[in-house]
Amino acid sequence: MQRSWYRKRSLYNIEAREAGRILIDGKWLWDFASNDYLGLSHNEIILKQVLEGLRGKTGALGSTASRLLSGNRDYYRHIEGRWAAFRGKTDALFFSSGYQLNVSLIRSLIDDPREVIVFADRLVHASILDGILLSGADFRRYRHNELSDLERQLKKYRAKYREAWIISETLFSMEGDFADIDGLIGLARDYESRLYIDEAHSTGIWEIPSLDKCDILIGTFGKAYGLWGAYVCVDNGQYIERIINRCRGFIFSTAPPPMLFMAVEAVMDLYENDMDFKESIDSYKRKVQDFNERMFPGRQGDKASQIIPFILGEDKTTLDVASMLRQRGLFVPAIRPPTVPEGTSRLRISLSLDNIAAWEELLETLLTVE
Ligand SMILES: Cc1ncc(COP(=O)(O)O)c(C=O)c1O
Hints:
Elements: H1 3-7, E1 14-18, E2 21-24, E3 27-31, H2 44-56, H3 74-86, E4 91-95, H4 98-109, E5 116-121, H5 126-135, E6 138-142, H6 147-157, E7 163-169, H7 181-190, E8 194-198, E9 216-220, E10 230-234, H8 240-246, H9 248-251, H10 258-273, H11 275-295, E11 307-313, H12 315-327, E12 330-331, E13 334-335, E14 345-350, H13 359-367
Parallel strand pairs: 3-12, 5-6, 5-7, 7-8, 8-9
Antiparallel strand pairs: 1-2, 2-3, 4-10, 9-10, 11-14, 13-14
Helix pairs in contact: 2-10, 3-10, 4-5, 4-8
Pyridoxal-5'-phosphate binds at residues 97-99, 102, 125, 127, 169, 173, 198, 200-201, 220, 222, 230.
């Protein structure tokens, strides 16, 4: 059968959902596809706080306009300030989605794209790639997580431009491996470049101490925080005026609704006050490390995270293994090009607190795959 057939995607109809499980075609399956790593999308404490908040505010369902028109609210800036401090920065702005943010932010950060070069990890998310292309700046990709290749390119090209940006993720969404953030900070300093980091998949779970040193920190609320939407954090108001005045994704889009700000506030309260929740994250991380070590003996540290790529190479093999798992009640998505590079089709396993009861079964089944 032609390869294009194996690349065709279709939507699954999820008939019902409960913690860690989804009902598809009348069959309950363990959900290893969701990015709701901590199960916060259905957290009762957050839900209660949001519902109470919604009842207390008039016009709380929608924000009514772009924030530059009548879509801003007093408490939006208050929550954003608190969020920035939570992420080790001084200022933040929220967007409705990470795609919208990445795609529109990069252009707003630079003046004349003809004087700017962007260096990005080869495997950054599509939204970053689209944002760089739309920015009009010159663009070079370095080999995934290879800082020696980044430095080689910085040596060769940096001096030809007035301004340079280095862009990476903290935890790569399809590889499940961590970038060397300290190494990136060092190169940005040595080659007078600015650092733009997307922490979408690590935030809320993995502490990455030096992240506060990057110029632009972005992340999403749709992964470990179980919500939707995104944030950009900076220091000392740097770039905030620019973003408000020049970022098309901010200017020409209805502001995120009050519900998002209320939910983010509830999430912060949970992280700040709930010791049991914090302990559950620590225990989850230990179990994630253990799963990685059993699945890939010797794998630790920068490779072991809650995102596990099980690379099979061919599209058809990957679809076949996904279908075998599904028959056993395990829903693990098959990820194929162009989402991942050619020849690296894979199962993307997302380990969450919600699906923990099925980790053992998944591990044992996968260890039998040739
Ligand atoms: C690294 C990264 N950045 C941004 C996004 C986009 O975020 P959102 O889903 O909020 O549009 C994703 C989505 O998967 C992502 O993996």
